[in-house]
Structures are given as C-alpha cells and as structure tokens.
Amino acid sequence: MLNRRNLLKAAAGAGAVGLFPWGRVMASPSGNVAVLGDAATSAPFAHAMPMPPVLRPSSSTAAADTYHLRMAESSLEVVRGLRSTVRTYGGSLPGPTIHAVRGRTAVVHQTNGLAVDTAVHLHGGHVRSQDDGLPMDTIAPGATRTYTYPNQQRAALLWYHDHAHHLEAENVHMGLHGQYRITDEHELSLPLPKGRYDVPLVIRDARVEADGTFVYTRPSDCPHLLVNGKERPYFKVAARKYRLRVLSACVNRYLSLRFADGAEFTQIGGDGGLLDAPVTRTSMTVMGGERVDIVVDFSRYPVGSAVVLENTLAGSGERTEVLRFDIDRTAEDRSSVPGRLSVLPPVPRADVEREFVLRTYPQMTINDQLYDPARVDVRTTLGSSEIWTVKNVEPPVARPDFHVWHSFHTHLVNFRVLDRNGRGPGPDDAGLKDTVTLAPGDTVRLAMTWSGYTGSYLYHCHQLGHSSGGQMGRIDIVAP
Ligand code: C2O
Ligand code: CU
After folding, report:
1. I need a labelling partner for 3 at 20 to 30 A (CA). Which of 173, 180, 325, 406 fits?
2. pTM: predicted TM-score of the whole model, two decimal places
3. At a CB cut-off of 8 Å and minimum separation 6, what does 18 contact?
C-alpha cells in the first residue's frame, strides 16, 4: 500500500544509494561495477558436498600453534560447470577450518593478497582488542598482520571473516569466511557423534551469473544457496546419528531450515557452545553469523532413500531445497546425546542497563547514529554485568523482507537472552549467544559481563550490508 509513510521510506531508500548500492547497476565500495544479467540456472544436487579443508599449523610448540593464511582471488566451481572468481582465505570457499584446542594459543599470520583492504575478525572469539580485527585495523594489499588467539574459552564453533570498514559485507559475500573450531576436554568426554560423523554445514546465499561471474548484490537477487561452497549439493550419509554444525554465513538474509518430511532433530548447541540440555526441534531460523549445533538420526530412513533440508523462507523464484542427504549405507553407532550437555555459567545479574534502538529508515542506525570509529558509544568497566535492551523499531511486514530485519552481535563476550517481547527465550535464543535475530517490532533483553580484556570492541547488526553502512557501535572497556 502506498501511503505517505511508505512514500517517505521509498524516498529515504533512494537517498541511501551511496552507502547501500543495490540496483540493476551497482557500484561496490571497492569500485567494481556489476550489471546484473541472468543468474546461472542449474539443477539442484549436481555436486557432492565437500568438506572444507582443515588448516595445518606451519609450526607448533608445547603451548601454541602457528598458522599462515593468504587472502587471494581464486577461480572455483560454485555452480556446476561454471568458474567463478571469489575472494578466499587460502584458496578455498569456505576458507580452511582452524581446529583449536582450549588452552593452546593459535597464532595466525594473515597476508592480504587481494586488491582491497581487509581485517580479520574472529567471530565469537574472546581476544585482545588488537587481535579483534576492528574495522580500522586493516591489512593493506600486500601486507601481513598477525592475530593471536588465546583459546581460553569453552568449546564452540567460531568463524573468522572480514571486517574492514564499509567493505565487510562485500568481502564476506565474495568469500572471506572460514570456520574456527575450539574443542575442550569436556566436549571430547561426551558420547556425541565424532570424527567423520561431526560435519560442518556452512550455508550462505550467492549470485552467480550465467557466465560464472560471482557478484555482491542484495539478497533478493541472490538465488543460489551454497553449502560448504557448492550450490545445493548432496551428501551421502550412513543410517546413523550425525552431528551437524550449521553456520549461516549469509551476509544480508536469514533462513528457516527444516527437513522436508518434518523430521525432528536435536539441538545440542548454539553460538557459544553446548546447551545445558538438548532440545527437540523441527525447524530453526538462522541469521547470518548464528550457529546451530544439531544431532540428526538418519537411522530412521531406509538405505537407498533421501531426505532434503529445505529453506521455508526462500524468496519468490528461489528454490527451497538446500541440501539432500542420501542414506546410502549402514554403520555402527555408539554415539548418544546425553541429557546433560554442559554447565552454563550463571546468568549475569545486572549492575548497568542500556538501551539500543535499531532502525532501517531513514538510515540503518543504532540509537540514531552511524558508526564513527573515533566516537565511544559505550564506556564500561572491566567486569561490568549489564542488561542491554535491544529493539528493532521498524513496523512488522510480511516475511521475508530482509531489509527491515536486524540482528545484534557483540564482540568479545557471549550473552544470554533474558526475554524476547516479554516472553522467555525461545529455542532460537537458547544457551550462550553472540548474535540474535530481531524481526520488525522485536525487543530482546540480553545479559552479559564485559570480562577478560580492556580496550575497544564493537557491537553491531550482523546483516553485514547494514554494519557496512554504519549500523555499528564502539564499546570501550576500561580498568575499574
Ligand atoms: Cu561476525 Cu563484528 O562480526
Ligand atoms: Cu540491521
């Protein structure tokens, strides 16, 4: 309906073109101009799902492992039969997975072999400010920066991705993302599926043109869904339990995932590692940045059958299929999901309360301000426990309208969701979180303790097109 408010919104949207350059002709922040042609078409399930490579340390001592990665353009097959130029860490999409162990330091030397600035952020990492990959701490083309990750935190699936100011959305979309797994003795002691039965599913959207060109554009023009870097693949599984670590690396959209037959699965973890107890679910909504750790029992299916994971929030003209599991053999299964998975730290009791208002119109802001790296938005003291009330004040619209959805992500620490719209946290909000989804009209209350390190950190919307445009704030933590 075109009422005055919508007209104002349309006008504001047109004015925002400089920062949010989407249209038939779009100029990217790095100066590339892409003219959208026809998207590549291909039948689903044309590729086997690959496993992202695991990064081997170049050297190790008793207490630390040292890694080297180089960012570069690589030509990869994303859609069957086409070559696409993407930006990679170490030549693969997703980048190689770093396997870290709690208590052992990882030192990662990142060399920028690209023509654009980059900054490497470890999402979910409890690290010093100078190792956080802040937007202005960039690596110029040709330069190298060393990041030190102490891994003094519980087992969890983290991920590393670009965070260079104004460039992170395009850089991550073009391929600069990889996984970072931390394991610990407690996790290893549990009888959960392990080894080849513990499988990453890195899911993200993309647009590949009919000639193979990979472009960054708005999510409604991104009809391809990649799992571990291949469009809508198939994965051969044994009729037994698998642990599937779902990471949404979507830059500007969310997904709602379910098995096409409505099958139940067991959620065992989220952003910040294992939940206290497993939860049985049939669907999950995941925003870019969120992780959902699930166990699926394929022994319910006969050998020779298949089940499809689908996205019920596919846009018009977009396929719903994400990944097909082909049950092709039997296998022994001694794994199980214990009723008690982990002990979560106590929910912080707040000393300080703060409020954050997220808007899309007239600009994508937090508390009506665009990010300014020189302005401190929140100053707090080390050890401060806080309740943050975060609101998406855009009015509700028919789903899916990705542009008025927001999310909220904190660097350095995990938080607990106390409530959502006055009700207790739902399963999408369970456990330790670092990224929450905010539908239009939603209010969430988060509790966290700013522990570990002093210095500058960030909070922002994890729709990276929004954070690139300035929907981000600076928090400085000072010694008490
Ligand atoms: Cu995953 Cu500040 O980001
Ligand atoms: Cu946002």
Report:
1. 406
2. 0.94
3. none
